[in-house]
Structure formats: C-alpha cells, structure tokens
Amino acid sequence: MNDEYFVKKCFSLARKAQGNVSPNPLVGAVLLKNGKVIGQGWHKKYGREHAEVNAIKNATEDVAGSTLYCNLEPCCHTKKQTPPCVPLLIQNKIKRVVISNLDPNKDVDGKGLQQLIEAGIEVISGILEDDGKELNKFYFKFVQDKLPFVTLKIAQSIDGKISEAKNKQTWLTGKEAIKYVHKLRSEYDAVLVGANTIKIDNPQLNVREAKGRNPIRIIIDGRLSIPLQSQILNPIDPEKTWIFTKRDIDEKKVKRIADRGIKIFSVNSKQNHFNLKKILRVLADNKITSLLVEGGADIFTQFLQKDLFDEIIVLQAPKILGRGINGFNIHRLKKILLLKMDNLGKDIRLVYGRKLSD
Amino acid sequence: MNDEYFVKKCFSLARKAQGNVSPNPLVGAVLLKNGKVIGQGWHKKYGREHAEVNAIKNATEDVAGSTLYCNLEPCCHTKKQTPPCVPLLIQNKIKRVVISNLDPNKDVDGKGLQQLIEAGIEVISGILEDDGKELNKFYFKFVQDKLPFVTLKIAQSIDGKISEAKNKQTWLTGKEAIKYVHKLRSEYDAVLVGANTIKIDNPQLNVREAKGRNPIRIIIDGRLSIPLQSQILNPIDPEKTWIFTKRDIDEKKVKRIADRGIKIFSVNSKQNHFNLKKILRVLADNKITSLLVEGGADIFTQFLQKDLFDEIIVLQAPKILGRGINGFNIHRLKKILLLKMDNLGKDIRLVYGRKLSD
C-alpha cells in the first residue's frame, strides 16, 4: 500500500531528531504530488518549526493539490512556541492528509483532523498506528500519564546476576552492548542510578561510544553520601547532574555540590526508600519524558516492585556466575512480555514490555 | 553449488531416523545419474541396512556410472552387523562419491575413501562439513571421547531461577517449550535427573507431547530414596528406568525395584556426590551416546562445575521470580558461547556451547 510506504518515510525522517525534540514528539512529513515527492521535512529541535512547516518550506514546486503524509496529527492549538500547522495546510490548499497517530495532547486529539475535514481536506488516519506509537512511546506516555516512560536496563549473566559480589564492579557484557547503552542514553531524556552504583562504579553516565547529546544524569542519594570527587559531580556539563536527596541533609555538602552548578532536589522520604512515583512526577514537571534506569539492584527492585516501568531491556552475557548479586530482589513473581530479541555481539538483547493481563 | 544441494538432501533423509539408529550415526544417501536422482535411502534403525545400501536397492535404473552423495564416509570394516559399503559401491560401478564428513570410527577414518580412490572412483569430501558434524554431534562425541554428548536443559525465569522455593514444583515455561522438551527426549538416548526432582515433580520423563520413542530414564539416587510409588518406578517400559545408587544400600529395596524390571547400577561414591565422569563412562559402555540432563539445581551445578557438558539449552520464561532457587550454584564464573536463539511461544530458547578459549 502506497500510504504505508510514505508514512514509513515519515517515521525515518522523524527519527533523525531522536534525543533533540523532547518534550515534543518525533515528527516527519512528506508531500506527494502526482506520484512524486515534492517536499519533506522533520521537527529538528524543541522550539523550532514543525515537520509540516519544513516540508512545505522545502517543497520544490507549488504544494497546492498535494497529499501531506505525517506520522502525527497536525497541531491546531496556539498554547505553544510555534504557530499551529492546520491553518497553514488549509492556506496552502493541501488536498489530502494521511497520518499514523492522533496527537494525544488534549488541545489537539482529533481537533486537528476535524478542522481539516471541515475545510474540505480528505483525511486518512491510523496508517501503521502501532509503529507510530512505538516511535513516540516517550511522548504518548508523558502526555497521557504525566509521567516519564521508564525503561529498566540491566546487564546480567544467564543466571540473572549483575555482579560477582556485593560492592564489586563486574563487567559482564561486551563492547557492542556498551555502544548500545550509550546510544540509548543519547535518546532518553535522563538516566537514573542509585548512590551505590556511583560509589562502586564511579560512572560518567554520558555519551561517549555513540553520537548524540548527553542525557540528564539523576542520582537517588538519600543521605547525600556520594564522594565529592565522583565523576558525576565533576562533569563538563554540571547542570545535567540532578541529585534527589532528603530534606534534612548536611547543608554544607549541599552547598558545595550546588555551587558546582549541580541541581539538588530535596524531597520528603519517610524511611530508607524514596517515594519513586513522586520522584517521577517531579521529573515530569521538569520535562523529563523518558528515563533509563541503569541500576543497581536496589533501584531495579523498587521500580519493578512498584510497577513503575514501561520496558525492561536485558543485556545478557554468555556467562554463568553462580554466586553473585541478583538484579531483582522482588518478593512476588512478575510476569512480563517479550517484545524483541536479538544478538549484540556475543551477548543478547531482550526487550520486555508490561504484561497487562493473563 | 550442486554438490551442496544433494548433501543437504542426505542430511534431511538422515534426520528421518533421529532417535532410532544410536549408537550408529544418522546417514542419508542420494544417487545421481545424468543430473537425475535415481535412488535415495537412509539408515533407518540400528542393525539394519546402511543408507548406501538402501539407495542402491531403491534405484529406479542401473546405478553404474552414477554419483553417490552421502553425509558420512562409506564404511569399509567388517566388525559389525552388516557387510561394508565400500565393496558394494565398487561392485556397482559407482563413478563418483561425494561426502560431508569422514567417519571418526578408527576402523574407517579415511580408509573407506582410500579404498574408493584405489578402485578408481572420484572422491570429494568436506562438503558442508560443519553441518554434517552438527547433525551427528552425538555420534562424533561418542566415538571420539567414548562419552555421551551431554546437554543441560534448564527452564528458568529471566533472573535465573528454576523454582519459587526449595522443594516446590514451579511451572515456568509454556506448552511450546514442553513440546520441544518432549521432542528432545525422543532424540536423546537418555535423560537424567536427580532424586530430588523425582520427589518434587514426580515426572514420567517419557515422550507424550511429541512423536517418537521414549528415552532411557536415568536417576541419580545415592540413598535409593525415591518413593516406590513414583511414576518413574511404575512405567509401562520399566527396562528404560535406570537408577544409579551407592553400593551399600538396603538390599530389600534394591530387590523390590529390580523385580519390577528396573536396572540398578551400584557404584562407589566417596561422599555425597557421585563421580559423574564415571557414571558417564558406564552410560557409554551401555551404548548411551547422548544424555539430556533435566535437573535439578544440584545436578546442573555438578555437571557445569566439572565441565561435563557439551551444550546448555536455556528455556527462559518472561517472568522475574526475585526470590527462588538458582539453577547453577557454581563457585566460579563460567563462560559459554551462544549458538542459537529463537522464540518458543512466549518463552525463548537459547542454545549455548562450550567456550574453548577466550
């Protein structure tokens, strides 16, 4: 089917901006006239022109009478940085609009298509709908639930161990897996680890083995116990390190860290564990639409136990540890759903989603 | 390449007898004359005609001047139930012989091809050699090492647990995985479990969910502690239940079990654990060329720790148990090698081989 072909083209155009448009969705657009592509564009960066605008701008001939393909419903609301696209399409005499998904944003959500139809434009929606939702899974989750899309990323042995012993750093997976993790970091708005991971691994949590921008680095550290010399507290982009800690913490240390340009969030916490849902809400308030949780065991366990995840990515090395530290110390069996499996060098990648029913 | 095509045809003919020719190899043969297949055959059952004989017998025209394709080197020795094939091929004026693997049996091992060459027959060997070795991996292992090919088959959660609690039966994988395990049982000469597995699961260890014959069922039970009413001690084919126990065991119970037609092997055992290598030698002496180890944790751990395995098949269910029983309680990291991965319903199948070097 022709429509599917051009919607797929929109997906790949949209994907070029992965990591750069949040909290906006990834959108690509193609203009077709007399069977020929006469223009294409994508939303390149948050705050810049929408895909539809770019496609019209790039058109090599008059767009009147053409079909606009776009993976997401054109916008019609004015509560934002750029003018709405629907009037532009009407004005430019677009004849037909083909989309994959409705925009779940309440200010759009069908209203965009409605206005196009009322202007006499032929509208088709729902082409490759699931693929479109997968492409913009961060955006859909964020808009619908006002929470970031949360992925737990765990590197483990065949027998589910993440390290050989407590407080011991263990490299399990190979370089292809490392590259893949860095690619993920360039696509997620933020990564999150617990204080123990900082103390044991002293990671940078930035993007070195792939192209793309660094994510926000979030550390859950109730007692503000990570050493001042940690790499995460001394990065070239300190505004990207955010620490969640308790309210009644050593003011001096808070100041020393904040003075470096690092953001500190003081939140209430009854006992040892934070209210993770509350932290996710704070992150959403700060425009974090996607979160890659990188460990360690205590953090994985809490997210899994409280059902605060959308996907789990298991990078499994061809090793059996026998003794060692489990990634998930939950108390009750959790069923999930295999979405994808493939090789990653000598390791394998398993992507699981939530199982909504039995 | 034409030769590859017909060697592959031999593989698929050979495979028809899976489970029925042990300790012989799986062999198929195709006769080609003037670009036309004029005969084909396979070794159907231990003690019966070889594939080459069947192909000649089935030939629709005079085989003189034809090419014989065969996955294994034709035999030339007389220490066996059927006459050797090489003289038959010479006698029938076969012009060309194309094979995949040399027969590692010391009485053949190149001598078959040598005799063919000396008789003026053109010989090509080594076509799809690795595939041929995979097809006959049981036979190659058995002939070369005088040990069965050992596969550890473990059904586990993502986090490497085989059950929810000690002495508790837990079904992790779905029906596709069960069918697959029954298929495996029909192909392996024997399956092996520990006494605990009998006590907890009370399995039949036979083939119900697939076509094929039952394997020999081996139980490692040092204290001869499994209950007399266990299904494994009351099968319709008691001669297929073999128990390995210690020498100084309750004579009365031994007699009661043996009277049912069940085979009891009394072996020396210093402490709690048997010398597994010795047991494997006894099995090889009893013509067991392939062994599927089905658990439990103690058995898996011993086989893995002592490096007494050729493959590990992990059937991984999309579940996280958190608490539970580990399949492998080894003390030192073991690296293995991913050979295959695929879906099995909602579960996945991972096949690992031995890692011979770093």
What does this structure look like?
2 copies of one chain form a homodimer. The first copy, chain A, is an alpha/beta fold and 358 residues long. Helix content of chain A is 28%, strand content 27%. In chain A, the strands form 3 sheets. The first copy, chain A, has a 9-stranded mixed beta sheet with strand order 11-10-9-8-12-6-13-17-16, sandwiched between helices. The longest helix of chain A has 14 residues, at 2-15. Chain A is elongated and about 65 Å long. Chain A binds chain B through residues 156-161, 164, 301, 304, 314, 318-323, 326-338, 341, 343, 346-348, 350, 352, 355, and chain B through 156-161, 164, 301, 304, 314, 318-323, 326-338, 341, 343, 346-348, 350, 352, 355. Strand 16 of chain A pairs antiparallel with strand 14 (319-320) of chain B, so a sheet runs across the interface.
